[in-house]
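Long-time lurker. I teach an intro course on protein structure, and each term I like to show students one example going from raw sequence to a predicted 3D structure in token notation. This year I'd like something fresh instead of my usual example. Would anyone be willing to generate the tokens for the chain below so I can use it in lecture? Attribution to the forum is fine with me.
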Amino acid sequence: MGHNNLYDSYLSPLNYSGTTLSFTRIGERHSGRGGRNAFVTLFDLNGTSATNPAGNGTALDIELQMDAGWRRRLTAWQWSVGAMGALHLGGTYNQRNGNNPAQARAVVDVAFSGALVHPFTLWGRRWVWRSQLEVPLLGLMFTPNYGQSYYEIFSLGHTDRNVVPTTPFSAPSLRFLSTVSIPLRRACITLGYKADIRQSSVNRLERHAWNHTFVIGYSRLVQFLPR
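-- Reply from a regular --
Happy to contribute to a lecture. Here you go:
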């Protein structure tokens, strides 16, 4: 649970802000000598209800992200780096708009991925501090052009650069997650902070979603023994 600040120039010239709720699942499967290689998957779904500064308009936003990639551990402190491929789907609905009330989003990208995992002992138990960062580098984004309606795109077939490439210059974004896993018998309770910053400036349309959330979760280590 946390706070999201939304801006989408296709829908409104105003910033909208409000409460966001999200569900995140991260999986890692280690392989190679000493488990230095990790196949990483990430699923993230968040929804936001935001209002404008006057409090007389509401925007509803939903975002789905699915990532998969590899990281390789580099040092004893378990620094690891790699790459992730990601699919982002989402949309925003603005209740004050009559002509174009909604904006849909679809992005595929390749991101740099880095993580730091540091186990430590506290009160005789093994705790784990983990931080990870993903920064999109190259991708493709679906977007209407400036002044173009979805009716023109999908009903009339009037396309106009509706799939555009993205880079850190046109879509500077990042995801950062830092957690502490507290041992609880054979599992862990996880507490942490997540920042999901999505920004873009393409086709003369600008958007940002600055999502900051407090994370509470459950994590478990499962070991598969070789035959």
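Some talking points for your students: The two ends are 42 Å apart (CA to CA). DSSP finds one helix and eleven strands in the chain.
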